[in-house]
Amino acid sequence: MTILYFLVQLMGATMLLLYAVRMVRTGIERAFGASFRRVVTTAGSPVSSAATGLVLAVVLQSSAAVGLLVAGFFGTGTLAFPAGLAVVLGADLGSALLIQILSFKLEWLVPFLLALGGGFFIKSDGRKLKQAGRIILGVAFILISLRFLRETMDPIRDSAFLPSIAGYLERDFVTAFIVGAVLAWVMHSSVAVILMCVTLVAIDAIPVAAGVSLVLGANLGSAIIPVWLTRNMGPVARRVPVANFVIRGSGAIVALLVVNRLPVLPYLAWMGEQQTLINAHLAFNALLLLTLPFCRLLERPVQSFLPAADVQQEDLPQLHRSVLDEASLKSPSLALANLKREVLRMAQIVEGMAAPIMDFFGTYEKNQANAITARDTIVNDGLDGIRRFVADFPADAATKQEKKRARELTEYAIALETVGDLVVKLILPLAEEKSQKGIQFSKAGHQELTDIHERMMANMTLASNVLISDDLESARLLLEEKSEMTRLERSSRKKHLKRLTEGTQTSFDSSDIHLEVVRALREINSHIASVSYPILYRGGQLLETRLIETMSESDQD
Question: What is the chain's percent helix, strand, coil content, to nearest 5?
């Protein structure tokens, strides 16, 4: 019974720790996630790229999350291999610094963090303040979970069970190494595993030598996580995670042999035994940065190991082909699933059309503009196909809810077609006009447009997820993002008018184009967010006063 009670307490403390880490990361992503692409892809030298990764890992509380971001950007060609690998190596050190920060005795802050974070999260209507509250609460929960973990281990610290295991791990460092790697992979968080190890060493539950082996194993497991999570991506996108695995994994094995065969630990054993683990973790990831000058040399071997997939010419326009299948009309449920696939295809094409529009306001490329215009024709054809498909929908065999769902998907397809028209018929002509007249945006004005565009693209991805999952919480978040976009438009308009009153010449020249682009981006976002309305209606969420007010304010603007 004692063992069962111990296991339940241990699982509870561990789950709270994992949830808290995820809570902080979610808050950061929701508040600032739209800017991550710009931050990662604008890094220059390997040192600045590594510094960018370090900061992102501390912010996101996960080097694996940074690895996934880099894999996505490298897969689309927006990030070079050496820069991407440098960002990931910097993120490894960033996660180590995060552990150092969280290992300080900060329990006296818990009541203050709970009060402040809870106040922001519950009482604030502002999006960033609400997410700040989520982040602060997450930090408080991390500190609470670590205290729970210490309290859980205290009763069995002097039992015969724990010392026997600890002694075995100390003698067999290879097993300790493997256990650390497996724990990090299973928990998908090396931060949580290493914090647990630090806590166990601090209360003398396991010896320092075993703790260091577990930490080095957790580093190997942390390198495996992005490789596993990118397994369904293309071969190109997986190159950076695999290269990081080669460097970090081989480094962890070498470090394991060094610390267990040579008298290295005494040089790291200052400020207590638990600090020894953190020092070893920091030293290991700092030493990995010595490979930065050689990142480019890994590109060719990894490229040979993961060659780009051969794509035949006739397979290139696969996304441009309709997936509607008339045979599915025999069954209403299959017809709805087929219809949703076609709407998702339209959403992906429209997202590809909208992604590069800010590039046109830097350098207008006529050929690229024509290619985007051609995609709009494909979107229009997709909508025509959906209309015909819905007209043939088996109304006699379908339920009332299935008919309603078919109408909702058609309405969203119309919204997507409108988005394509806004890109081709409004935004691209504005970019061409700016190029022909030699108009320049002010630095502040261009940054405002970039921020709004990044937020819109993040919402497009979220809208596609909502379309597939029908998730109520994601739909609610998307509607809140619509209100946030309206606020950003107002803020940009006010700042622009202030620049006009201050006599900024570039703002005078670009005034009409700036205001039109802001309005167009907000309108695109509104159409994209419309996918959330039916889901919120079905969930009864639109009966809540705040959301009704949010919708009415957004629609009035």
Answer: 85, 0, 15
